[in-house]
Design brief:
It is built from ten helices and nine strands. By secondary structure, the chain is an alpha/beta fold.
Length: 310
């Protein structure tokens, strides 16, 4: 369970991630655990809502890259509305980000955007729409009070119709549109962040995209940071420039070794992005001096070649 607030929004929020579906279109596979870019889909979504004060995952507990609070609808497998109700019971923030666990391209920037849109409108929620303009209520930010009110009203309405109890069980099997239809929603088009993985073809598409030239480096860095438990944003351009200078001015194997030593030096000091940048600056200057010596024989006491008399 995370207890930080995203500094770029200054809006305390909780996150509810629905990860307990049956994944029938994947043949019943463990969809949240399917790996895209070396990371389970669930971990990718958890990284996108890392700024949440509390993160609730509605599913049976499993290992995750980030600490979370677990919840389960009763009975299990009761559908998205029942799962959302179960997760929301563990939240206290004024805003709740609600996400499915199969969004390979969701990023923190998208979560911040939804919260910003929600905060600047009088709407009950802000949700993404996909490439076909369809609402994606499980990629959204809601006012928690409005969402709770709608859930209660829906349970009461169903109970009045069926003569049953107005408890959480009344929400079992209901489609999300029954809930969102009662809310005032602002729509934010985003075909990429709203892309979800319902089929194996979707999984294949996601795996292919992250290996494309324009995305693979950022994807790899994000995966490594998650794997190593590092929550640090550094200027990768500086490190790439350093690696290039070391490879060109010294020797190719110097590139990875130099960047490793820069990270080690930063960790021994303050350990933040500034420490990495300062260590990289010093190492880059050293690589430049090294290259200058190679290019200037006189610096090593060797005579300059005499000019051609011709």
């Amino acid at each position: 369970m995370s207890h930080t607030t995203d500094p770029e929004t200054d809006v305390p929020y909780d996150a509810v991630v629905l990860a307990g579906g049956a994944a029938r279109r994947l043949g019943g596979a463990d969809k949240p655990g399917v790996r895209v870019g070396g990371r389970p889909l669930l971990d990718r979504v958890l990284a996108a809502c890392a700024g949440a004060r509390t993160t609730v995952v509605v599913a049976d507990p499993r290992p995750t890259a980030r600490p979370v609070r677990w919840a389960r609808e009763e009975p299990p497998g009761g559908g998205p509305v029942a799962a959302l109700d179960a997760g929301l019971r563990h939240t206290t923030a004024e805003h709740a980000v609600v996400l499915s666990a199969d969004l390979p391209f969701l990023e923190e920037a998208t979560v911040r955007r939804l919260l910003t849109v929600l905060g600047t409108t009088g709407a009950d929620g802000a949700l993404l729409t996909d490439a076909n303009g369809r609402d994606q209520p499980l990629v959204a930010a809601y006012r928690t009070a409005a969402l709770r009110h709608a859930l209660t009203a829906l349970a009461d309405a169903v109970s009045a119709t069926t003569g049953g109890s107005a408890g959480p069980g009344a929400l079992t099997g209901l489609p999300l549109r029954r809930l969102t239809g009662a809310l005032d929603l602002t729509r934010v088009p985003d075909p990429l962040a709203s892309f979800d993985c319902d089929t194996w073809d979707d999984i294949a598409t996601a795996r292919t995209r992250i290996r494309e030239h324009g995305h693979v480096l950022d994807e790899w860095i994000s995966a490594v940071k998650d794997e190593l438990g590092i929550d640090l944003d550094v200027d990768t351009g500086v490190l790439l420039d350093l690696a290039r200078d070391a490879a060109h001015g010294v020797a190719r194997p110097a590139a990875p070794l130099t960047t490793f030593l820069v990270g080690y030096a930063a960790a021994q000091g303050e350990g933040g992005p500034e420490a990495v940048a300062e260590a990289a600056r010093k190492a880059a200057a050293l690589a430049l001096r090294w290259e200058e010596e190679n290019d200037a024989p006189q610096a090593a006491g060797k005579p300059e070649p005499e000019p051609d008399a011709g």
